[in-house]
Amino acid sequence: MIELGQRNTLEILRETDHGVYLIDDDDNQVLLPNKYVPESFQIWDKIDVFVYLDHEERPVATTETPYIMRGEFGLLRCSQITEYGAFLDWGLAKELFCPFQEQAFKMKAGGWYLVHCYLDEKTNRLVASSKTNHFLDNKDLTVKEFEEVDLIASHPSDIGWNVIVNKSHAGLIHKNEIFKDISVGDKLKGYVKKIRPGNKLDIVLEKIGYRSIEPNADRIMQELGDHEGYLSLNDKSSPEEIKQQLQMSKKNFKKAIGTLYKQRLIDIKSDGIYLKDSE
Fold it and tell me: pLDDT digits over 72-81, tens only?
């Protein structure tokens, strides 16, 4: 079956004036226009293509890769608004449509919006929705506490940042756990700190507890190496200074430099920390 909105590996069936027709194992066919046909090919060669609907709502193949595919989330730019809705640039000749009823807030041309791409079963068209929470489900979680997860920054709130977890669940990074600048659409690595009643996910950007010491210590050693063996930070530095220079909490910073000090890799002085023998 040829999947709309996904990449498909198909075989070249025949050549025409308009391009080549590709076929799948179920004898479904789709046109690959001339502009995407390889310079040299043979009948029955396999080719990897993305399939969507052209301007006449006919399935068509392309060797280009869109910025997001069906079932994915991504940050897209709105190129124009019409009487029917918004059109978003997703890297293909025909833009991705977002109807008014699927806009969390009214879109404007030139704006950037986090959207989900899905197949509208009524029209069999690929469309976008900025109501991303409709495509997240925490009823049956596929993550557990302390697990590393992939995140997409969704939107800020009064208590932190709402994030999409593993493209499936809704999560929250609380304000006091954020030590770097975050923007809508950012892709991040994080960790499940806690699963609260109702399967609500508390997410952090640093490894939890003792798990955070080694990577944070490595980060500090890298920064020392990049700054001639010296950083103007120590255990008396403010959380804001540590956040600005290292994007980590003061608590984890103190744990990390304590580890490095015990390993005799650094000296901690009143004006900062030094690599051993680098003063």
Answer: 999 999 999 9
